[in-house]
């Protein structure tokens, strides 16, 4: 767990350092984010989802995971729309910051080192990639176009998004058991390998050259997204998994640990891509990444 967090912090630090030294400017953050969004992340999703066991998502753990996501996401969207009059796109980014966990580059090592099986993060990973992300991107696409998303937008628009396409290709490979020929698989894997470091470097550059911590984001809004992510999501997941579904032992620990992971860095990439609540996404990732270490440690101590 410590190794996973330390690796993330180190790469973010490199991004901040090269920005501080003047090697790159704020424009580099935009370039890295766009490359990660349009090129590297879809390639990573192809290889990641193709290796996942899709049957793992169809379990009782999924119900608890869905509840853990739905409550904080809906809570933020409702309060932000009423209190701060956020647009639908801004509400989507805030809701994702409150509930979309770092199941990839942090969840996999945490599941492996803390839970003893990297596959235990599969329900969370596949739920986010196959359901949450496509729906969120459909709303963001519609918001950029200045109109409310229709049913057609929600159903069809995600299939024009590179992240959704990468996810679906990986799902097809997983379900059918097909394998890409090496002449295709090797370049895809190599390109996908730059997704996570690209996101982290872009995040570090934004931390150094972007608006100061908080920026124009109300402190109460940042506190809301951070507390929903760090406290509400794991508590809801625990309550549903243990009291409603009767999970105990290692399966219960897996659900709660996965729900306690910090906000994923790719939410900052989405916020940058659509120019919606960028500072809120950036700062929520920072707060939850720091706060998740004691939270996960406490969860393992109580339930492990």
From TrEMBL:
Name the source's superkingdom. Bacteria
Q: Which organism is it from?
A: Fodinibacter luteus
**Spans through the membrane:** 6-24, 31-50, 62-80, 92-114, 120-142, 154-178, 190-210, 284-303
Q: Name the PANTHER family on file.
A: AUXIN EFFLUX CARRIER FAMILY PROTEIN, SLR1864 PROTEIN
Alphabetical UniProt keywords: Cell membrane, Membrane, Transmembrane, Transmembrane helix, Transport
In the bilayer, the protein is annotated as: Multi-pass membrane protein
InterPro entries per UniProt: Mem_transp_PIN-like (IPR004776)
Q: Does the keyword Glycosyltransferase apply?
A: no
Question: What Pfam families does the entry give?
Answer: Mem_trans
Where can this protein be found? Membrane
- Protein name per its UniProtKB record: AEC family transporter
| Main localization category | membrane
């Amino acid at each position: 767990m410590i190794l996973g967090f330390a690796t993330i912090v180190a790469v973010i630090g490199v991004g901040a350092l090269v920005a501080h030294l003047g090697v790159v400017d704020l424009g580099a953050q935009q370039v890295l984010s766009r490359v990660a969004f349009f090129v590297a992340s879809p390639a990573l999703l192809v290889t990641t989802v193709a290796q996942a066991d899709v049957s793992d998502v169809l379990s009782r753990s999924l119900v608890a995971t869905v509840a853990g996501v739905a409550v904080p996401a809906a809570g933020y969207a409702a309060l932000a729309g009423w209190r701060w009059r956020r647009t639908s796109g801004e509400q989507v980014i805030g809701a994702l910051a409150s509930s979309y966990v770092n199941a990839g580059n942090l969840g996999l090592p945490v599941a492996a080192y803390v839970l003893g099986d990297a596959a235990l993060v599969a329900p969370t990973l596949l739920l986010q990639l196959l359901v949450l992300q496509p729906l969120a991107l459909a709303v963001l696409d519609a918001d950029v176009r200045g109109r409310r998303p229709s049913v057609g937008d929600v159903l069809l628009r995600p299939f024009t998004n590179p992240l959704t396409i990468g996810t679906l290709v990986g799902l097809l490979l997983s379900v059918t058991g097909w394998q890409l020929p090496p002449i295709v698989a090797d370049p895809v894997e190599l390109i996908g390998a730059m997704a996570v470091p690209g996101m982290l470097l872009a995040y570090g550059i934004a931390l150094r050259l972007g608006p100061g911590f908080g920026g124009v984001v109300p402190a109460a809004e940042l506190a809301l997204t951070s507390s929903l992510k760090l406290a509400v999501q794991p508590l809801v997941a625990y309550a549903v998994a243990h009291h409603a579904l009767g999970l105990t032992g290692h399966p219960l620990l897996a659900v709660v640990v996965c729900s306690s992971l910090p906000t994923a860095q790719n939410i900052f990439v989405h916020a940058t891509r659509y120019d919606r609540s960028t500072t809120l996404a950036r700062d929520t990732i920072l707060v939850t990444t720091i706060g998740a270490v004691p939270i996960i440690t406490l969860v393992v101590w109580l339930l492990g």
